[in-house]
Each structure stands twice: as structure tokens, then as C-alpha cells.
Fold this sequence. Notes:
Mean pLDDT: 95
Number of helices: 4
Radius of gyration: 16 Å
Distance between the termini: 58 Å
Shape: globular
Strand content: 35-45%
Number of strands: 6
Structural class: alpha+beta
Amino acid sequence: xxxxxxxxxxxxxxxxxxxxxxxxxxxxxxxxxxxxxxxxxxxxxxxxxxxxxxxxxxxxxxxxxxxxxxxxxxxxxxxxxxxxxxxxxxxxxxxxxxxxxxxxxxxxxxxxxxxxxxxxxxxxxxxxxxxxxxxxx
Length: 137
């Protein structure tokens, strides 16, 4: 599919942000986010770059020793980009591998992430993250 230059630039910015997540270059990620961005993940809504940083520092960065997302499909229309992805991660606590899939919609402003909604099966993620049960003798 052929996109207008601005749409292609938005897709490229989203891909760059995902790549930086995988490299754990958090400052690089935050450089691609507007100060007043809004991110929705189900009932959780983060307002602004500062809340995003705080959430990542408390719930994402220490929980996963490694994480990477693979983008399968993208589409853009104006300032909106939609992409389907799979996350593969390693739990820092015990080294177990976990993975999940999702779809994200985001609105870009000037090549930066301004608003996003993440759709994924959070119950499936939680099940994978439960401590593994050791067999009892």
C-alpha cells in the first residue's frame, strides 16, 4: 500500500518507537512521545509523558528483563496509525518466557505519539505471569 509522506513518516516513527522499546532505550522512546500524550490500556489511562515514565518504571521495566514487539501489520490514515503486534518477553523474577498479541491505535502529532489505545487480552497475560507451581512430592 502506498501512503502519503506524512502517513509513512508516522508509520516509521511507530516502528522506531517499538524498536527502541526492544533495545530498552527508554529515553529514545520518550523522545518520540508528546508531553501531554494519553495512553489507554483497558481501564488504565495514563495522562502525559510523566505518568508514562512512572508506569514504565514501576510496572514494566523491572518486571521484564527483556521485551520485544514484532509488528505484523500496519495501516495509516492521516495522523492515525494502527498496528497488530506480538510481544515476547522474559520475566525478570524467574526467567520464564511470556508472549501476547495485541492491536494498537495511535494518533501522531508532528511525528510523535500523542494518543494511543492498546487492545490485548490482559487476563491471558496475567495467567502467564503467575508464579509457576512446583510439583509436590
